[in-house]
Amino acid sequence: MMRLDKYLADSGIFSRSEAGRAVRSGRIAVNGAAVRDPSAKVDELTAAVTVDGQAVRWTKYKYIMLNKPADYVSTTDDDPKSVMKLLPPEFTRLGMFPCGRLDIDTVGFLLVTNDGPTAHELLSPKHHREKTYGFECLPLTMEMKKRLESGVELSDFTSKPCTVQLDDATHGRITVTEGKYHQIKRMFHAVGSEITYLERLTFAGLTLDKKLARGEWRELTEEEINVLLGK
Ligand code: URA
Predict the structure, then answer these.
(1) Is this prediction's pTM over 0.70?
(2) Helix, strand, coil % (nearest 5) of the chain?
(3) Which end of the chain, N or C, is less packed with Cβ atoms under 10 Å?
């Protein structure tokens, strides 16, 4: 059981004080009956709660798919260029953070969540969760592609085997199971090419929604959350 104003604030639609005002003004119903007391207790697992007649659902964790634009930084620091500035301020209040980092000039799928344990697992190299990046690069020969695929020795580690699909010498997709700092750029550099454009297309079994323009976001569907959590 939890307070109604906390339930609403946790759902990410109101701050706690906005939630209190919404409840007092009669906009909230619980199991079909208007409730005007912000401290009223609701069962977060079973209650049917509506705001102006629209259902809201409490979940312990939120999961957001963000299509990251260039020039934004994957940080929760209070920086005007933080990816968190692309999301409602309630999300920062709920303790949400980007799951891993994309470089400032890398675009595409960035998961933002407040599910710390799952984020930790998704980022752990032990779990081998695949990520596919679309790229543009300086021309790659078949020999360089083979070297990328079999693993490249870098200053601090050797990349694991991965797959590279080429559309032509300068465009393609690469799928890796690791996520080391500047990994893709460093791998291409090591074989004598350079990345000139990088977009993350998939993350841990989920595909970037083509309907999201750069800078847009949406919540993951229940089905996507199940894929993420390996259910
Ligand atoms: N590899 C990189 O080099 N940069 C990214 O942003 C992601 C993967």
Answers:
(1) yes
(2) 25, 30, 45
(3) C
Residues 6+ apart with CB under 8 A from 159: 148, 151, 152, 176, 178, 180, 183, 187
Residue-range domains of the chain with CATH: 2-56 (3.10.290.10), 63-124+206-229 (3.30.70.580), 130-203 (3.30.70.1560)
The finding on whether 198 has its CB within 6 A of some atom of ligand 1 is yes
Q: Which residues are identified as catalytic?
A: 103
Atom nearest to 101 CA in ligand 1: 6
Q: What is the pLDDT along the chain (231 residues), one digit of tens a residue?
A: 999 999 999 888 888 899 999 999 999 999 999 999 999 999 998 999 999 999 998 888 999 999 999 999 999 999 999 999 999 988 998 899 999 999 999 999 999 999 999 999 999 878 889 999 999 999 999 999 999 999 999 999 999 999 999 999 999 999 999 999 999 999 999 999 999 999 999 999 999 999 999 999 999 999 999 999 988
d(CA 179, ligand 1 centre) in Å: 8
**Atom 7 of ligand 1: nearest residue by CA position:** 102
- CB of residue 102 inside a 6 A radius of ligand 1: yes
**CB of 144 closer than 6 angstroms to any ligand 1 atom:** no
